[in-house]
Amino acid sequence: MTNPILESMQRFGEANGKGLTVQDTRWRYYALGRGPAVVWMTGGLRRAAFGFAFLERLARRHRVVAPDYPPLMTFDSMAAGFDAILQAEGLDRFALGGQSYGGLMAQGYLVRRPKAVVRLVLSSTGPANYGPLWGLLGGLVITLARVLPERSMKRMLAAGSGKVLSTPGGEHDEWQAALEHVVENDLTRADVVSHFAVAADHIRSRRVNPQALAASPGRVVVLTAANDPTQSPKDVQAYGALFGKPPEVLSLGMLGHTAALQDPAAYVEILEQALT
Q1: Does the predicted TM-score (pTM) go above 0.90?
Q2: Of 88, 89, 84, 105, which Cα lies nearest the Cα of 40?
Q3: What is the domain extent for residue 21?
Q4: Lesser CB count within 10 Å: N end or C end of the chain?
């Protein structure tokens, strides 16, 4: 049986996909549209093409660059790939956005390129200055990911992602099937290990801190949904302490954790407010 979500992802990739090699690692990313530049960090499923519908809408007024995540083990190696992609695209000033896991990537990259980021948009994610216990937990999960059967680890990743997957009711089964297909057939054990390893490395480094972020002059905008189980009412206050200024907050209403999938048109309308 064909899956229209997977077919749309494939068409999007064929139309907009690019690649380059950085330090022996092959990167894939998507570049589309014209206008002010937006660099978008995707969530924990690691494949930006899941957001094909909202990325295409966003590209009507913006130049959009969105990388996939290869199976690397440190944040610095990820950031080196981001650097190379932006250099290849000729981008030295841009808005930086991140959804869920991508918010962790975006906050770390802001520390690396504070003068290049004109504004930071964080969607359904939290402050990246996690306590050291999270780093220890990440190390434990990495160990498990290396010793457990690959299928078991993939199922855990798919199950965790499925719990926060918000999509149109009539399309939920198709999105869930697409998620499971990509996790099972496109991601590898190395991708699963990388998912936790990069996060743990990020946390242990403590690179995201008020002193590092003081060099960033850009706006910080937080998008949050009332029914997102990953969000905490304390996040906004914590962002204020981290960035040294209260963030601008825009409501995603009841669009859930993956608002861009639930209603791409409504999501881009809200996102445009953050980018204006």
Answers
A1: yes
A2: 105
A3: 4-127+207-275
A4: N
